[in-house]
Amino acid sequence: MSLNRSEQRVFDYLQGHAEERHYWLGKVQTIAAAAEDPHAAAIRLDADLWRYYEERSAVVPVFKEAARHEGLKRISMKNLAEHLLRLWVAPRPKKPAAPASR
User: What is the pLDDT of residue 31?
Assistant: First the structure.
């Protein structure tokens, strides 16, 4: 999975901060459980991850520096959302295929 710079920054931050990672692990699993499908969960997480990036940009030096150089124009966090879903959520069992009628 290829992450953009902003997504990679968030992922690295979560990897280095257990309390943040734990929070996001729970959030990802809760959203995935409530969503109709993984696509819907990824869309919701994309928005939540961007809000998190904006919030962190006001207080965490690595995010502040990036925001100063790159600005805070909305950037997709969809790849990161999908990556976190794959890492932290057990795949749902596939529904059995309907028997073909003859």
Answer: 97
Asked if residue 78 has pLDDT above 90, the reply is yes
Are 6 and 66 within 8 A, CB to CB? yes
What token pair was written down for 76? 């997709």
> What is the structure's pLDDT at 101?
64
d(CA 17, CA 21): 6
CA dist 23 and 14 (Å) reads 9
Instruction: Output the CA angle 79-54-50, nearest 5 degrees.
Output: 25
DSSP code of residue 99 = P
**CA distances (Å), origin 18, targets 4, 11, 14, 24, 88:** 22, 12, 7, 10, 14
Please name the residue ranges forming H helices in 1-102.
5-16, 18-34, 38-56, 61-70, 78-88
